[in-house]
């Protein structure tokens, strides 16, 4: 009786493409929001614009919502 053939595969085709798209999306979305938060904070005259941007990139949705709620109090200069 022949032995069964064991199959082992490495993701290569569509699976790898899906993983790469998800990884790219999970980096580009926070980066884009961080850039928008930084530009908005600098336009409003915030001294902590870089800290808001880093927090928006690393902290994700919680910091995005927090910045949106307090952004009127962030800077002293009006638009």
* Share in β-strands: under 5%
Q: Can you count the helices?
A: 3
What does the overall shape look like?
rod-shaped
Please give the alpha-carbon distance between the first and last residues. Answer: 81 Å
Helix content: 55-70%
Strand tally: 0
Characterize the main sheet: none
- The secondary-structure element order is HHH
Helix/strand-derived category reads mainly alpha
Poorly predicted regions:
none
Radius of gyration using CA atoms only = 22 Å
Report the mean per-residue pLDDT as an integer: 81
Structure description:
The model has no long low-confidence stretch (mean pLDDT 81). The chain has a domain at 30-79. The protein is built from three helices and no strands. By secondary structure, it is mainly α. The chain is rod-shaped, with a radius of gyration of 22 Å.
